[in-house]
Amino acid sequence: MEKEIQYYIIKNPDTGLYYRGKGVNRWGKYMNQASIFRVRGQVEESCDWINKCHRDGERAVIVPITIIEQEPEII
Q: Residues 28-75: pLDDT tens digits?
């Protein structure tokens, strides 16, 4: 049985980097480094925070992703 769940990540459309979290190394080059948000309101709040702080060259947009969870097959 498969279950599709909607998640969200934050991406900088100018640089193509993905948001990893607050701190020094807050942007990562690869999608697997991104912080994954389950709640839409939480990702919107984080995106607003990034856009308000606005360090040099930072701009954030929300990217919806779908993760498919599969039940393990019992033999």
A: 999 989 999 999 999 999 999 989 887 777 899 999 999 888 888 887
C-alpha 45/C-alpha 55 separation (Å) is 17
Query: CA dist 39 to 43, 48, 67, Å?
Result: 7, 15, 14
Strand ranges of the sheet holding 18-19, from the earlier edge strand across to the other edge: 27-28, 18-19, 2-11, 61-70
SS (HEC) of the chain? CEEEEEEEEEECCCCCCEECCCCCCCEECCHHHCCCECCHHHHHHHHHHHHHHCCCCCCCEEEEEEEEEECCCCC
Say if CB 9 and CB 19 are below 8 A apart: yes
C-alpha dihedral sign at 53, 55, 59, 63: negative
Structure tokens given for 40? 């839409």
